[in-house]
């Protein structure tokens, strides 16, 4: 991997840490946190529709391989959901009410690891895909720390978690790039299809579900579209 790509891969990691420091000084209200989650959901949807799915098509992998990989990714995320719900139930039964729940923490780190792997796969695929995904998903990572804030979470915890998320996305990006560089179009297409299922889960079962936990206002819809437009603008300017 060349130095230029390493610099681009480091951007999401640095941005995630910056988001943690921002969250340490600003505790958004439930409504503002919902808006943040809508914005992040729009970014991830755009990453899927604007860059990831078209890149899967450009790899020209066999249809059955893509279908199977997406199905496998769906089952993996379904299993993750069952596991995280089990952990959250254990926390409730044990009376743990402080800090970030284990289920949410586990799901967040796995989601970020998938983001990193997608970025690495984008660099392995060549072209501008890796750079666009690295910059675009940085927007999501910037607000991730804010989305995790609550009255029970200290500023120190948020900074530590955000630093861990930044390190995770960096390492998984490097790993994805190293493993997939020189791989066949079929392998890269399969990896991207698996990742697409994970991102779809992140939007529908994590970000928007959490965002709708509070009464939604009409502005939320506009914020969702703003997130989509932000990523699309990055892609258009990159092209």
Identify the notable features of this structure and list them briefly:
8 helices; mainly alpha; about 240 residues; about 85% helix; globular
Report low-confidence residues grouped into runs of 5 or more.
Answer: none
Largest sheet: none
Helix content: over 70%
Give me the Rg, rounded.
17 Å
General description of the model:
- The structure is a single chain.
- The two termini are 22 Å apart.
- The relative contact order is 0.24.
- The protein has 8 helices and no strands.
- Helix content is 84%, strand content 0%.
- By secondary structure, it is mostly helical.
- The protein is globular and about 50 Å long.
- The mean pLDDT is 82.
SSE topology:
Layout: H1 3-25, H2 30-59, H3 63-93, H4 102-125, H5 129-148, H6 155-180, H7 185-211, H8 219-238
Helix pairs in contact: 1-5, 1-6, 2-5, 2-7, 2-8, 3-4, 3-7, 4-5, 4-6, 4-7, 5-6, 5-8
Quick summary of this structure?
The protein is mainly α and 239 residues long. Helix content is 84%, strand content 0%.
């Amino acid at each position: 991997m060349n130095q230029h790509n390493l610099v681009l891969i480091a951007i999401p990691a640095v941005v995630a840490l910056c988001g943690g420091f921002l969250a340490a000084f600003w505790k958004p209200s439930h409504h503002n946190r919902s808006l943040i989650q809508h914005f992040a959901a729009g970014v991830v949807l755009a990453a899927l529709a604007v860059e990831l799915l078209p890149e899967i098509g450009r790899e020209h992998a066999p249809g059955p391989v893509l279908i199977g990989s997406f199905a496998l990714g769906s089952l993996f995320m379904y299993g993750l959901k069952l596991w995280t719900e089990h952990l959250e139930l254990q926390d409730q039964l044990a009376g743990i009410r402080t800090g970030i729940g284990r289920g949410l923490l586990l799901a967040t780190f796995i989601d970020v690891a998938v983001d990193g792997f997608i970025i690495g796969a984008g660099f392995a695929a060549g072209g501008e895909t890796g750079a666009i995904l690295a910059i675009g998903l940085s927007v999501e990572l910037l607000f991730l720390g804010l989305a995790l804030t609550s009255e029970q979470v200290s500023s120190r915890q948020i900074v530590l978690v955000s630093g861990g998320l930044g390190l995770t996305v960096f390492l998984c990006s490097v790993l994805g790039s190293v493993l997939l560089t020189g791989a066949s179009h079929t392998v890269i297409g399969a990896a991207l299809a698996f990742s697409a299922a994970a991102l779809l889960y992140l939007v529908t079962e994590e970000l928007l579900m959490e965002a709708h936990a509070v009464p939604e206002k009409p502005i939320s819809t506009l914020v969702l579209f703003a997130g989509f437009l932000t990523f699309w603008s990055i892609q258009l300017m990159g092209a």
